[in-house]
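dumping this here before i forget
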Amino acid sequence: MKRTHIFPACVLAVAASAATIASAHSGVPAAHASRATKVALRHTRLGNILVTASGFTLYEFTRDHANRNSCVKISGCSTTWPALKTSGKPTAGSGVRASLLSTITLPRGVKQVTYAGHALYLYSGDSGPAETYYVGVSAFGGKWYAINSAGHTVK
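structure:
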């Protein structure tokens, strides 16, 4: 006799809701990993800095070397400071130099956006666009800074 298992729709709905809530509470919109990621420029209290298309501040990690992500090797780092990912060639918004945009390959083939050789990260604690409260924070053995359109560190 063949058994058929039927899961109640409410169980599946609860599981889907939990995943959505977890994504929403990460502070980082899921759209950052979509096709061609756009890097934009936005004026903040620190001056003009790189942000995502939805306005979230982009960070560099001082432990990284040119075109390298050191965060992936540190336990918990990638959860707090997720890489800015792309599945296509990153695009430049107004004021951003397309020639400075590139990608590096992370474990499992994931592509991370870089700018002037700096691997770009988001901060999971940012709750809204252009927040700069975490610029200069020390965490995971290094400091996290913003970047300007020339590819220089903004402290």
